[in-house]
Every structure is written in C-alpha cells, then in structure tokens.
Automatic annotation (TrEMBL):
Any single Pfam family the record assigns to this protein: LigB
Highest taxon of source: Bacteria
Domain Extradiol ring-cleavage dioxygenase class III enzyme subunit B: 23-237
Protein name (database record): Dioxygenase
Keywords assigned: Dioxygenase, Metal-binding, Oxidoreductase, Zinc
Family annotation (SUPFAM superfamilies): LigB-like
Family: Belongs to the DODA-type extradiol aromatic ring-opening dioxygenase family.
Cofactor(s) this protein requires: Zn(2+)
UniProt GO MF annotations: dioxygenase activity
InterPro entries to which the protein is assigned, alphabetical: Extradiol_dOase_DODA (IPR014436), Xdiol_dOase_suB (IPR004183)
Amino acid sequence: MPVAFVGHGAPLLALDAEKGAELSAWAMTLPRRPSAVLVVSAHWEDAPVTLSSTRNGTPLVYDFYGFPEPLYQVRHDAPAAPELATEVTKRLASWGPRASDRGLDHGAWTVLTHLDPEARLPTLQLSMPHSASMKELLALGRALSPLRDQDVWILGSGNITHNLRRLQRDGTDAPVAWAAEFDAWATETLSSGDLDALCDPKRAPGWALAHPTPDHYRPLVVAAGAAGDDATKVRFPIVGFEFGSLSRRSVEFG
C-alpha cells in the first residue's frame, strides 16, 4: 500500500466539494481497498506515543473555534481499528505506546470525509511525541512501514507550509514568496529522496516563516519514514495554495 501525506489546510476542507473531489479522485487510484487507515496528524502531539480510541462511536474532536455551524455537524463514523491498534502497539513497543479514549481530530476527519466518504475503513490515529526529533520521527515511521504489507494506508496530515499569522485575507490563493520558496525546496528534496535534508528543514529557505512551529511539517517526516525503500518514489497528486501561506501539496510515496 502506498503512504500518503495530505496538506489538509483549513478545517473548512470538510465542506469544500471542489477540494474534496481532488482527494476522492486520489483515493480512487489506490491499488486496492485498504484494510485500515493509520493517521498521524499535526494536531495531536502527545508523549509517550498514544493511540486513539478503539471503541466504535467515539465522538470526533472539533479542535477549532469560530467556524460556521455546519462544520461542527460533520460526522465521520468510521469503524474502530482494535486489531490495528494491537499491531501498532507491538511494532512501537520501544516507544512505550499507550491507549486513550480520544476521537479523531480535524487533521484526520476533514480529509477522511473525502478519502473515505462512506466511512467504511477502520481508522486509528497515532500521536507524535512532541519531544521527538525529526530523525526520531523518521524512525517512528520506519517502524510502522511493515504495516503497508497488511494493506494499511498510513496517512500523514499537515501542511508543507503553515503560517496562520500570514494568511492572505484578500481572497487570493497565490503564494507569497517565502511560501513558494519553501514549497519548492520540499518538492525538490522529496523528489531526490534526500531524507537527511528532509530531517533538517531549518537549513531550507523560508523555514522560519513557513513553520513558526514545526507541528504541521512533522507528519511529512513520519510518512517519509513509513515509505521505507519507496521514499524515493514520489508523486504529488494535489498541489497549489490557499490563503497564500498554506501549501496544499500532497505526497504519495510508493
């Protein structure tokens, strides 16, 4: 199974039919139906590594405020994935994983409403330890890589550029210079399979503005690690920007 990184952008993605159609079309290109989905979202950094609820019917996490009421009515009632949780716990034994009753956050469900619109795929979310280095996150992804052979779709969710303080609110999506520059660096780095550079983004042009905090970049590193030997096989099924500072570039490894 390929590995994905999705630029999830603003929470309103869940209600955006045009952007959602791109995600739905991407899901249709998978070689087969995934057995389950494992999501690593920018919106859950918790140590030690923590797994989301394995109980059906766990409410979603609406971890935002000030948006239109219909967004708070969105549901994604995917089946829980207790068997995947057992497998992930075994593979991440050295990380000391723990269970929780937490539901899926918006980094997961806003994209899954389009990638799995009928909510049929058993879904589990995994936290990123906030203290982990980029190299450690790469290793975390590599530990998860064998799940691909069980048809688990590993999905990182964040943004290659993410600066909410620099949103362009004049209605244009054209990227500002620093965002375009960092997005271009990431594209070249991913295309060349240079994982050392990917794990050292502070050396990249525009990093400080592209990521005032690194949380939305870190799932990309986990996804690259999960790709294993396929980290050099990349394509970009979705590209572009919104609000000038949010890259929508999404990556498929493998």
